[in-house]
Structure formats: structure tokens, C-alpha cells
């Protein structure tokens, strides 16, 4: 059972990271909005030998609504929901966030890890959108240090997506010798992710020499990560090295935590089907205009970009695809009928 797996996790983390186990306090607190309680999801047949799936997400007051919708979508579509353990990373308000998750998902196996923003504050430079400059946006770089060493593999999900397929299919991909897996988009203009200063430097572009394949863009909002290989290869420090160059030596990119990942991993990721990251539904990083789906099947809808579905729905100006996010919204509004309540 997931509870036994969770209890067996041995926390081995640096002093600047503190893990707090899940509680079952059903009270929301602080200034956070109220959310409905989701139904309890139980394992189907054939789950006795199914693997435990570790999923990492961030939690903060701004994106909490999106995170809870993502959790609900994952549980609703997987055949073995009790085998899924969530690892949430948060800064503050820490305890109200924990209570809110437990109130919406009383039977959820989860842990929350406190992330010290000071760790990256001195390494972050301004980008094209303020949300990309928040310390928690960089927490994915530190998952291998934050999560217990007994967690050898994790799926990282952003907080602005919903999964409409069994997440076990994504979990089951064979990474082989790769550190991470993600959908690649080689049609994208890769040079646009770095500044002219980067490309004119005699040394910086050589970072892509000797890669397994030519460097292509991939979105870091959906990644399957081999934490054992990450730790062994010192990849956190490699990413930090590029952040330090950006901060202290030369402005080589404009898009927050994404370019360091491209610099370290582009051309070396395990290719995952595009169905697992139908990204860009939030539009660009400046205007956030409506966008359509990419051609092909869909297992995951991702509102990356400026426009978030909950904000556009609240404003009464939703994009057409925002309606696909709405069924997973757990926000409690006065007078709303609870869609999960039993009919009388």
C-alpha cells in the first residue's frame, strides 16, 4: 500500500531543506481560498504488482488552484491512484498549503518539502515575465537534493496542466542511459532561446558540441527524471554554473529556469511522445493569447505561457480550450453545486 511506501522513505536532505510528512487536518487556513473535497480514488484490478509512481510538483498561493486541478486529473485517470505518491515543494504559506491539500485529498499519499528561496535568489536574473523569476520556479533543479535518496525516479509536473491519460504510461518509459525524458520540439527556433551575446561568444555555443543529437527545445514542465543518475552526474551544480554565468558574466538568455536545462540536456534527453506535453496553451510569455492544440493525440494539456485557464475563466474571457481545464477546478464558490456530492 502507498502508506507503507511513504512511511519507508528515509529523508536524507541538506540542512537548507526540510521535509514534513503529510497530515490529515481538514481545515484550510490563512488567506487561501476554500476548495472542495475530491472523491476518494481507489485502485482497480491488477494493481497489486503495479509500481509506486512518484510525482513532484510545486505549491504556492498563486498557483495552488492549478496544482490541485493537476492532482485531481492525475488521480481520476490512472488505474492505480493509490500507488501515486506526491512530493510537493513549497516556500510559504507552508502550513496552510499543507492543510489545504489534505482537506481536498484526505486519502492522498503526499509529503511537502520546504524550499529555501535564499538558495537561488542570488542566482536569478530578470526575465521576460515576472512569474519566471520566482525562486520556486527553480526548485525543479534541486529535486535530487530535496527528495529522499530512496526516491530514485520522479515525474516533475508544472502546476498549470491536467493529465487526461493514465500517468503510469508516462512513468513506464525506459530512460536507458538518459538522465531525463521529455517531448522534444525540433521544429522550434532553438537559437531564439539564447541571446546574441551567447551565440557571438567563442566558447558558449560549444556547450552543444558532442551531444547525442542536435540540440532541440524541450519544455521543462513535464520531465521524467532519473534522480540516481542526476546525483551521480552532479547535474544540479552544472545547472547552477550556467545561472552564475548569466548573473555575473554575461546575459545569455531571457527565459528563467528553462535555458540552463537546455544548455545541460538539449540533445541528450530521452524522447517522449508529444501527446505527453501539449504545451503552450497559455499563449506566449507577453500577451498570453489563445492557442489551439498541436496535431496528434493528447495525454496532457499544459497551459504554459502567460495565460492561465483559471484567470481567464474568472475574467469571463476564456479561450476555447480552457473549458477542458474547468472540470478539474476544485475552487469552492458560494452557491455552487458540488459536482462530487452524491445525488439525493
UniProtKB/TrEMBL annotation:
<dbReference type="InterPro" id="IPR002495">
    <property type="entry name" value="Glyco_trans_8"/>
</dbReference>
<dbReference type="InterPro" id="IPR050748">
    <property type="entry name" value="Glycosyltrans_8_dom-fam"/>
</dbReference>
<comment type="pathway">
    <text>Glycan metabolism; pectin biosynthesis.</text>
</comment>
<comment type="similarity">
    <text>Belongs to the glycosyltransferase 8 family.</text>
</comment>
<dbReference type="InterPro" id="IPR029044">
    <property type="entry name" value="Nucleotide-diphossugar_trans"/>
</dbReference>
<dbReference type="Pfam" id="PF01501">
    <property type="entry name" value="Glyco_transf_8"/>
</dbReference>
<keyword id="KW-0328">Glycosyltransferase</keyword>
<keyword id="KW-0808">Transferase</keyword>
<protein>
    <recommendedName>
        <fullName>Hexosyltransferase</fullName>
        <ecNumber>2.4.1.-</ecNumber>
    </recommendedName>
</protein>
<feature type="signal peptide">
    <location>
        <begin position="1"/>
        <end position="23"/>
    </location>
</feature>
<keyword id="KW-0732">Signal</keyword>
